[in-house]
């Protein structure tokens, strides 16, 4: 069983419009709703790969109910979300049919009370007893202390459960001090954390801040991994044209899947890159195509890099 | 009792963002939700003026429940919405805090089945027995026949209830053939109906298509009315700076309020213009400030116009 934590779950709404024009009125031609938040997306990919996965974090209000109603039917996925009094946030992605570009609007999420935060931490500690890995994913909702991830990482380490952290901003800066086994920043998060825009230097710097391994996602350039076993660059076989929504979450799912099945690092990275690429190429945002994934898996280029700083 | 019909009710969501940039990601700083759809807005203004008002139309799903939960506490307002199996639509207004401009995204609404449409028409006919005026407001949801308003107008006329129509596009073109007592188009709707961008000519033309009276809302220029008793222009006392959201709905409420209290046309128009102006000037979109309304009421400039075409 793998555990994913999404403290700021979301009901992800996608609107298609013929062309987005600021300050104009638009008729939405298509509305798609699905459960979201990074850890929920990771869990869906893991379940599709055949893993048993438990989803925790917070859910509340009618949007929280909609989210949970849509998680229940997913085979292999267990809902262990903790109730919160405020309503789960919505995110709205407005897709311009003309350009294919997406404009994203993210609600802040409900304010979590101290009692709710305490209740979550107890549930989390109980859940850790039965899992082989945990991923802490996404932003912190209002009310949750900024150092939350560092605490959750320490709890996981005490329970001897390997922990992956994928977040941004202050939550990332404070979280890395908790010494996660794997840190998965993207290029922007890495630059914000380290002050360096040079990926190789920044990835090594991020690891020195406390992570066991750092796997940086560099968009079309694939993944750069700095681990105790070595440094690798893993690249998709060709430039990918598609929707990058959810590609980072699919990479996290690939890393976790490879971790719990005991794969060596190069194979974990190939799995992560192939899943990520199959997500970019899928017709629906955030989904992945299994055939494409399996076809790409053997074609990811893994290069070992020099380990010196 | 006044009846307002909103076949395509909505949960109106307002997002404030520091600055809207297409194709970027935005953190929403404020989320406001309120029951919407034109007839619901008209009813809220009528209730605030002290009228008893019944709201009908369709509501469904969790968004419909949120909408009804928020209508219930409004004093003077009776909820007679008819259930529909699909979820009530959302509208999202994105307010750019820098410019104050609004970008609007409107979901299409649930598809109404033939059985649901029949159920509505029965409820509507029953409700007509106890009301002194009815307003038919806004767009038609998918599944409702394009000639729906013409039929509802004929039913109201058979019940000797005066009827106001405020809609657009094909629903307006087909609706006017049902001979509503009052037609309330804005400048764009009037031009689309008649092909003329000259308001005076277009308003008279619209009346010849079947309406008893036409009251065109011309934005900052106020209202232009062509009625059996005369032609008037009613203008606010000064240029108004504010948010025009809901100003047209407030004008409809003013016209209905004046109608059921037996005011002559110039006084009805003054009420409509003052309410509309007080809505533009209110700090919250779609609300109106009672003090501003009362202050403006005596300062609306009413000009009788020559009646010849």
Could you please describe the fold and organization of this structure?
Chains A, B: This is 1-phosphofructokinase family hexose kinase. Chains A, B: Residues 13-286 form the Carbohydrate kinase PfkB domain. Chains A, B: It holds the Pfam family PfkB. The structure is a homodimer of 309-residue chains. Chain A is an alpha/beta fold and 309 residues long. Chain A has one domain (2-9, 37-88, 109-305): UDP-N-acetylmuramoyl-L-alanine:D-glutamate ligase (3-Layer(aba) Sandwich), CATH 3.40.1190. Helices cover 36% and strands 26% of the residues of chain A. Chain A has 10 helices and 16 strands. Chain A has helices at 38-48, 61-71, 114-128, 148-158, 169-175, 187-194, 199-208, 247-260, 265-280, 290-297; strands at 2-6, 10-17, 25-27, 30-36, 53-59, 77-79, 82-83, 89-96, 102-106, 133-137, 163-166, 182-183, 213-217, 223-227, 230-235, 301-305. In chain A, strands 1, 5, 6, 7, 10, 11, 12, 13, 14, 15 and 16 form an 11-stranded mixed sheet that branches. The first copy, chain A, has a 4-stranded mixed sheet with strand order 4-2-8-9. In chain A, helix 4 runs parallel beside helix 5 (169-175). Chain A is globular. In chain A, 52% of the residues are buried. The interface between A and B is medium-sized, with 28 and 28 residues.
Characterize this entry briefly:
Two copies of one chain form a homodimer. Chain A has helices at 38-48, 61-71, 114-128, 148-158, 169-175, 187-194, 199-208, 247-260, 265-280, 290-297; strands at 2-6, 10-17, 25-27, 30-36, 53-59, 77-79, 82-83, 89-96, 102-106, 133-137, 163-166, 182-183, 213-217, 223-227, 230-235, 301-305.
């Amino acid at each position: 069983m793998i555990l994913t934590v999404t403290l700021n779950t979301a009901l992800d709404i996608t609107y298609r419009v013929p062309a987005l024009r600021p300050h104009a009125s638009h008729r939405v031609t298509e509305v798609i709703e699905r459960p979201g938040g990074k850890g929920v997306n990771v869990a869906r990919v893991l379940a599709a790969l055949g893993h048993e996965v438990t989803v925790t974090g917070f859910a509340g209000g009618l949007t929280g109910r909609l989210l949970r109603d849509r998680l229940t039917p997913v085979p292999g996925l267990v809902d262990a979300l903790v109730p919160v009094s405020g309503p789960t946030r919505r995110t709205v992605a407005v897709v311009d049919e003309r350009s294919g570009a997406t404009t994203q609007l993210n609600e802040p999420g409900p304010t979590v009370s101290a009692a709710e935060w305490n209740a979550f931490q107890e549930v989390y500690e109980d859940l850790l007893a039965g899992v082989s890995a945990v991923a802490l994913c996404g932003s912190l909702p209002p009310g949750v202390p900024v150092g939350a991830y560092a605490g959750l990482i320490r709890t996981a380490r005490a329970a001897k459960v390997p922990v992956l952290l994928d977040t941004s901003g202050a939550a990332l800066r404070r979280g890395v001090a908790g010494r996660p086994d794997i840190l998965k920043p993207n290029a922007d998060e890495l630059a914000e954390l380290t002050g360096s825009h040079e990926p190789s230097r920044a990835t090594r710097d991020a690891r020195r801040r406390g992570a066991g391994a750092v796997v940086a996602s560099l968009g079309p350039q694939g993944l750069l991994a700095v681990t105790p076993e070595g440094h690798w660059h893993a690249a998709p076989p060709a430039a990918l044209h598609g929707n990058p929504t959810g590609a980072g979450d699919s990479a996290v799912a690939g890393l976790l899947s490879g971790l719990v099945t005991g794969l060596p690092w190069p194979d974990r990275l190939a799995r992560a890159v192939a899943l990520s690429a199959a997500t970019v190429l899928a017709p629906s945002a955030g989904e992945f195509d299994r055939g494409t994934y399996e076809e790409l898996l053997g074609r990811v280029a893994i290069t070992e890099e020099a380990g010196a700083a």
